[in-house]
TrEMBL record:
SUPFAM superfamilies: MoeA C-terminal domain-like, Molybdenum cofactor biosynthesis proteins. One of its GO terms (molecular function) is ATP binding. GO terms for cellular component: cytosol; dendrite; postsynaptic specialization membrane. It comes from the Eukaryota. Residues 63-145 form the MoeA C-terminal domain. Its cofactor is Mg(2+). Pfam families: MoeA_C (PF03454). It comes from Elysia marginata. Catalyzes two steps in the biosynthesis of the molybdenum cofactor. In the first step, molybdopterin is adenylated. Subsequently, molybdate is inserted into adenylated molybdopterin and AMP is released. Pathway: Cofactor biosynthesis; molybdopterin biosynthesis. This is Gephyrin. Belongs to the MoeA family. It catalyses: molybdopterin + ATP + H(+) = adenylyl-molybdopterin + diphosphate; adenylyl-molybdopterin + molybdate = Mo-molybdopterin + AMP + H(+).
Length: 150
């Protein structure tokens, strides 16, 4: 198994199988709809795009800044969020970080909350909490996987 201990996406399985001399990919997705959608965006869609011969099968990843202090989970987490682009007025005469889009979480991140997925344009990749870091401060830069339109 290649996938381990991310939130939300447990339990997830990836395996290969030989069938009539051909290798088949097997994805076992979580039963929860939000977890299944997140897992599909991170693993299944890129695999299908690669098999289809797309020159860039991976999802686009961009830097975003947090709009608030964000408490970290013990596991790495993909948090659903909406991207807000800075206006041209707000980027003049300011730091380069002022030009970085802001990610606003789509509310409660429990995996049963399907509505939070429908509004999301990105999945912010948050590190696990550690003994030295339990919160990412407002303005912190994180990677975000683009999953929807802006």
């Amino acid at each position: 198994m290649c996938l381990h201990n991310l939130s939300p996406r447990k339990p997830t399985t990836f395996a290969t199988l030989e069938h009539h001399g051909r290798r088949k990919l097997i994805f076992g997705l979580p039963g929860n709809p939000v977890s299944a959608i997140v897992t599909s965006n991170l693993y299944v869609i890129p695999a299908v795009r690669k098999m289809a011969g797309c020159p860039t099968p991976e999802r686009t990843v961009m830097k975003v800044q947090l709009d608030r202090d964000t408490r970290l989970d013990p596991r790495p987490e993909y948090m659903r969020a909406v991207v807000q682009w800075p206006s041209s007025d707000s980027t003049s005469d300011q730091s380069p970080q002022a030009a970085v889009p802001v990610a606003v979480p789509t509310g409660n991140q429990i995996s049963s909350r399907l509505l939070s997925m429908s509004a999301a344009s990105v999945l912010m990749k948050l590190p696990p909490k550690s003994s030295t870091q339990t919160v990412l401060e407002k303005g912190s830069l994180v990677d975000a996987v683009v999953i929807g339109g802006f």
